[in-house]
Amino acid sequence: MNCASFVQTEGLTKVYSSGKIQLCALKNVNLTLAEGKFLGVTGPSGSGKSTLVNLLGGLDTPSSGRIKVQGRDICELNKEELAIYRRYQVGMIFQSFNLIPSYTALENVAFPLLFAGVAKRERNQRAAEMLTRVGLYPRKDHRPAELSGGEQQRAAIARALVNQPKILLADEPTGNLDSITAKEIVKTLADLNRNQGVTVIMISHEELLLQEFAHEVIRLRDGEIVDREKLR
Length: 232
What we know:
Elements: E1 7-18, E2 21-33, E3 38-42, H1 49-56, E4 64-69, E5 72-73, H2 79-88, E6 90-94, H3 105-115, H4 120-133, H5 149-161, E7 167-171, H6 179-196, E8 199-203, H7 207-213, E9 216-221, E10 224-230
Parallel strand pairs: 3-8, 3-9, 6-7, 7-8
Antiparallel strand pairs: 1-2, 1-4, 4-5, 9-10
Helix pairs in contact: 3-4, 3-5, 4-5, 5-6
């Protein structure tokens, strides 16, 4: 596999149908991303950003085209293989933190490891390590209601990374945060990208944040890539 095509889409198209009405959310998207890069994706509402992330994360299937990750077309995976892909190769964070209210930060981060068959002691150890990486270890015993929005998003990032995925997909992760906290969260993602080698694909309306931290930014409009800018 060429390291320049760690993630690659070819003619990626997604059409949603409702009766006789068809909506083309993505149209012929061709994208190549090298391993260890931080890609920003921006564009107006309805441009296809979230659709792109859902397809890359295996949460949805394209109408046509291919999605290759490490040379493997994930569109050809069966149900079990796709579950393994979502569990181990990609981590996802969203605008809503999706933490379990009754669990502590440590328990929330450790939770995905339960499905991976990891013993409790190791689950807690790995969760503690991830909370340390995102600067939240001192708050490990606090439940979501006792954490600030930024702290909850850090816990969500730690949870997404606890299975050591190669790719982190972030869909508007700063949408519910104030500007100062938003910048701290994106800096956390950039630090993880730089220090841990995690490939990051982040959607945001806040293009200035992407300009500051991402290696590249693509701009979508009406389901198509209309611009791609290499920043560093």
